Amino acid sequence: MPFILRDSVFSFVLSIIGIILLGSIPFMFTNMSFDTNGYLNGIGELFKGLMHPGEIMYFTESGKYSLFPSMWNIYGYSLTLLFSAFFIALIAAIVLAITIFMLPSRLKDKIRVFSFVFESIPDVLIAIGIQFFIVWFFKKTNILLFQIVSLHDQKTYAVPIFCLTIVPLFMILRILLLNMEDEFQKDYIDTAKSKGIGGFRILYRHVLPNTLLSVFHQSRNILWFMLSNLLMVEFLFNVYGITTLVRQMGSPEIFTISMLLLFIPMFLFFTCLRIFTYKWVGQK
């Protein structure tokens, strides 16, 4: 446990420094030429700005506003979409994996192929397809299934979360199915069967917890993948979230603060997962 905490603190400090250095890149170039002194001075200016976040301003069509406390609503909206989609994908993938694994092998292989093909479809096509379907359904029935764009006083949640969920769901499902098959080849499964333990009980009491460890190890890549898709979702559904703020403002201070606010909860989440898996493996 202590080595995990030491490693986490070291990684956290290096990551914070890296984000600040990355946010200072606009100061690196002057008139299309590399400016070392400008970059070093820019790092100092950026650091001073971060020490007084209440003085940072951002601009919209309706006027000029202080970044805080407005930032918390923007930040909370994006984080709600991101983590809601992740946990929905995780729960749905677990349920589907258990259901699929109990099916006959021939049907299981067909579902695995479908999952691989569907996972390869770009998220932007899925999001646009959902939008077209909702508009088409509304024209045919005069029933609006979901609000498909955010307005100033009306935020949309269902469709952006659904679009963020689909591809990660199939990614997690593929990981679960592959690891379940590997687990069922191990000796302890034969031992459990020889003791008269049923297949379903073996699946959810022994195989599933072990396969979830693989999902936890891959969760970092999955969440970063979802974060890259968040930019596309916010653009398509007119969501004024944190990636939209960064894209429209282009300010080094706003970019750096936004990246820090995204990095810190994800870092804490991954660290907790790492500690949990360490304890779990130790108990096993």
Automatic annotation (TrEMBL):
Alphabetized UniProt keyword annotations: Cell membrane, Membrane, Transmembrane, Transmembrane helix, Transport
Domain ABC transmembrane type-1 residues, every copy: 75-273
Classification via InterPro entries: MetI-like (IPR000515), MetI-like_sf (IPR035906)
Topological type in the membrane: Multi-pass membrane protein
Location in or out of the cell: Cell membrane
SUPFAM superfamilies with a match to the protein in the record: MetI-like
PANTHER family: ABC-TYPE DIPEPTIDE_OLIGOPEPTIDE TRANSPORT SYSTEM, PERMEASE COMPONENT, INNER MEMBRANE ABC TRANSPORTER
Protein family: Belongs to the binding-protein-dependent transport system permease family.
UniProt name for this protein: ABC transporter permease subunit
Taxonomic source organism: Fictibacillus norfolkensis
Organism taxonomic ancestry: Bacteria, Bacillati, Bacillota, Bacilli, Bacillales
